[in-house]
Design brief:
Shape: globular
EC number: 4.3.1.17
Number of strands: 10
Family: Belongs to the serine/threonine dehydratase family.
Keywords: Cytoplasm, Gluconeogenesis, Lyase, Pyridoxal phosphate
Distance between the termini: 26 Å
CATH topology of one domain: Rossmann fold
Strand order of the largest sheet: 1-2-10-7-8-9
Strand content: 5-15%
Protein name: L-serine ammonia-lyase
CATH architecture of one domain: 3-Layer(aba) Sandwich
Cofactor: pyridoxal 5'-phosphate
CATH class of one domain: Alpha Beta
Amino acid sequence: MTVKEYHTAPAEEKKNPWVQTPLRESYALSEAAGCRIFLKLENLQPSGSFKTRGIGYYILRRLEELPLGSRPHIFASSGGNAGLAAVHSARALGLQCTVVVPTATSALMVAKLRAAGAHDVIQHGAAWKDADTYLRTEVMPRAPQPTIYCPPFDHPDIWAGNSTVMHEIAAQLDSPPDVLICSVGGGGLMNGICQAMDDLKMYTPTILALETAGAESLNAALHARELITLPKITSQATSLGCAKVTEATFKYAQRANVRSVVLPDAEAAMGCWRLADDERMMVELACGVNVALCYDGRLEKALGRPVRRDDVVVIVLCGGSNVTSDMLCGWRKEYAYVEEELDMQGKRDSGYGIVPKPGSHLQETPCKDQAVVQAVARAHHEFAVPLCEHAARLEDICVTREREQESETDRRLVAPVFDEELLGVRECGEIGQSEEREQDGEEGCC
């Protein structure tokens, strides 16, 4: 299985608000999952998420319905990724976009909408429905030019736009993947993927539809055997916070090759920080829930069968803008128990008693001094320091220590040097600064 070079024609790429994104094999995630993991990097879309495809395609179709040369004003009511996609798509097409968001929308997202070039960002109403109603009844009627209203996900043209991601994946691989993993909020992405698979007559891949607990509207509908509306969204993965999926999503999910999977916010957060450690990419919880399946046997449980080394698994890394280095750091502290519980399973009764997990950086090191290895594991366990940030220096430290042992140097002299050099960064704020530098393009330690 190889990834083929595939490029959209320049003329086509120029007129589309979205871009073709790379499909890259992740060796770190492949090692963790026990199979071949490919990442479809939708986080590289202009708006930061796959939403650019569906929203952009929808706007193009509406433009076709207007007289030639029309310059409509684009309107959207999403304070999240769909709103950003509308702004970016409008700008790519030389149009203006106004977004109305609820008053509860975070200052971060309002700032990102303004920075993306929104003509105006209006905050009104306590919930999305209030903002959407205000947009339709008060704001749009006052516009002096033609208008286009952008729904966030529930429209066949949005699904058709989202289907382009699956067509790209099919063109970039030699053969269909064994497994495809995607997030489900309202269902727009999954609808597009299933629609493309039907067009391509691709019926063999297993689709894992991921949701977070507290936003599992699809999973709840499948259990109830009918579409239902969640009484409340309690998950922190707000991009998945749709109380009811589309009817098309519910129908697609009943196919034999589709499996609904729900993970808690804590594991979604773990997927985010491990992706940052392993691939130096920041994504929000709605995307991290997909990545979480790669670790600690979760993929095997989700599939209900053993994972094979030659399985080709594609994760649609849907992206999302509701994430910062400080948020990653906060999740790591809040949900540290996710990894601590696994570390506890590997403890020994002697010394610090932490045994490196199979396939970890610690197990792969040639260091023979188990005291050093145990100290590294203890540092990771107690301070939540990402192993991959410092493991590259472990071998040098081990060599130095072994030389000191050979010369009968007092072993205690090594400890302070080890703590200062290997741990390097202990405070949460400093870890966030390190991640920000990596995001600016500086070479990381991994």
